[in-house]
């Protein structure tokens, strides 16, 4: 397994005090990465707190996971908006109302517009199931299998306008086995996703001081 971590340097004074990182979670599916974050917070492994969980799919299991643990949730269904920009304007309003420091996209299946990126410039991260820059976009796992790669993995990166192209914060590699299907490879990648999303947020939190 290999991983890399790149993060900006922040100077601290001796009087600086670390405070919990206030997170806005965005997810479209089952929410397993969100669950990993929530578990790490509950075990005091991660100095953060979830301010809001935004989901765009009314059937997304992440909503149930979050509600069961008492986290605020908000459905913002992209189908209710005429364009991506107006959809993102509603998301920005919800995130700002929740007073979040960082936006964490975990299985968020909508492309961010400049509206959302400008509102949280350099303060949004995404987790992607490939070793970027290889296989950006959707169906990354299927693409890796089709190309016959021997190593795949996952990446946490800063969100920019170009899909899956922002600065890389952390990566983890997993072997691709001869008998792998999309489902088995995805399951093995998810194990590493759950680890590095927590580690990446912890790194961000370590640089968050007041």
Question: Going across the major beta sheet, what is the strand order?
Answer: 3-2-1-4-5-6-7
Number of strands: 7
Number of helices: 6
Integer count of domains: 1
Q: Name the CATH superfamily assignment.
A: Formyl transferase, N-terminal domain
Poorly predicted parts: 1-16
Roughly what is the average pLDDT, rounded to an integer? 91
Note the gap between the termini.
35 Å
Proportion of residues in helical segments: 25-40%
Q: Looking at CATH, which topology would you report?
A: Rossmann fold
What's the Cα radius of gyration? Answer: 17 Å
What tags apply to this protein structure?
210 residues, alpha/beta, 7-stranded mixed β-sheet, globular
What does this structure look like?
- The protein is of the alpha/beta class and 210 residues long.
- It has one domain: Formyl transferase, N-terminal domain (Rossmann fold, 3-Layer(aba) Sandwich).
- It has helices spanning 32-42, 61-68, 84-97, 114-119, 140-147, 182-206; strands spanning 21-27, 48-55, 73-75, 102-106, 124-128, 151-158, 168-175.
- It is globular.
- The relative contact order is 0.20.
- Residues 1-16 have low confidence and may be disordered.
- It catalyses: N(1)-(5-phospho-beta-D-ribosyl)glycinamide + (6R)-10-formyltetrahydrofolate = N(2)-formyl-N(1)-(5-phospho-beta-D-ribosyl)glycinamide + (6S)-5,6,7,8-tetrahydrofolate + H(+).
- It is an enzyme of class 2 (transferase).
């Amino acid at each position: 397994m290999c991983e890399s971590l790149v993060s900006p340097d922040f100077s601290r004074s001796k009087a600086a005090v670390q405070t919990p990182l206030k997170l806005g979670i965005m997810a479209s599916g089952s929410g397993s990465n969100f669950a990993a974050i929530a578990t790490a917070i509950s075990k005091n492994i991660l100095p953060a707190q979830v301010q809001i969980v935004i989901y765009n799919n009314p059937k997304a299991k992440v909503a149930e996971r979050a509600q069961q643990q008492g986290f605020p949730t908000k459905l913002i269904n992209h189908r209710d908006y005429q364009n991506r920009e107006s959809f993102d304007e509603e998301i920005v309003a919800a995130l700002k109302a929740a007073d979040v420091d960082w936006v964490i996209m975990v299985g968020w299946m909508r492309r961010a517009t400049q509206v959302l990126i400008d509102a949280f410039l350099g303060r949004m991260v995404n987790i992607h199931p490939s070793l970027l820059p290889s296989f950006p976009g959707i169906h990354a796992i299927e693409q890796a299998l089709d190309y016959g790669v021997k190593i795949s993995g996952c990446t946490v990166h800063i969100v920019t306008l170009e899909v899956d192209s922002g600065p890389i914060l952390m990566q983890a590699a997993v072997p691709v086995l001869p008998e792998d299907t999309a489902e088995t490879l995805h399951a093995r990648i998810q194990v590493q996703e759950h680890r590095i999303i927590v580690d990446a947020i912890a790194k961000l939190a370590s640089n968050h001081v007041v």
